[in-house]
Design goal:
about 150 residues, mainly beta, single chain, 2 helices, about 40% strand, six-stranded antiparallel beta barrel
Length: about 150
């Protein structure tokens, strides 16, 4: 199965990877930034907002422009799927939006995320495999994994 993107669970203490399951996630922060590679990405911080693992954090990066300055359609598509699952008005609009406007409107959006345990640089982490709306029957994007581009022109 193709994973949405790499995610990493906070390991500020003695945390273990979260068990494989669906988790209610809320976007705490989103930032458009240049990666060390020279590519541009949207770095998203999610927080589990309910259940046994409430307040645990998960990070996910969505590639927007690769280091050669070419748009990353796969990363843009995955970001669009996240916004669709969160029922954000920032996606599928006729209005042309800048990435900074999109990122500024992402805080507090909520989705369900399916996480699987992994390791990142030798530390426990999780891979974000799927995303869906909190009420998966309310969207056609439940478990969205396609790389379709519908966010950027």
């Amino acid at each position: 199965m193709k994973k949405i993107a790499e995610a990493n669970v906070s390991n500020d203490g003695d945390y273990e990877s979260l068990p494989e399951a669906w988790y209610p996630l809320q976007i705490e922060n989103a930032e458009y930034m240049e990666a060390r590679t020279g590519a541009f990405q949207v770095k998203v911080t999610f927080v589990v907002f309910d259940g046994q693992y409430k307040n645990r954090k998960v990070w996910n990066n969505y590639g927007i422009i690769n280091k050669d300055g070419v748009e990353n359609g796969v990363g843009q598509g995955m970001l669009a799927n996240l916004l669709r699952a969160a029922k954000s008005p920032l996606v599928d609009t006729d209005e042309e939006l800048e990435i900074e406007d999109i990122v500024a409107g992402m805080a507090n959006l909520k989705v369900n995320g399916y996480l699987e345990p992994s390791s990142f640089n030798g530390k426990p982490g999780n891979d974000l495999k799927k995303i869906q709306a909190l009420d998966p029957s309310a969207t056609n994007d439940a478990g969205a994994t396609d790389s379709g581009n519908g966010l950027f022109s």
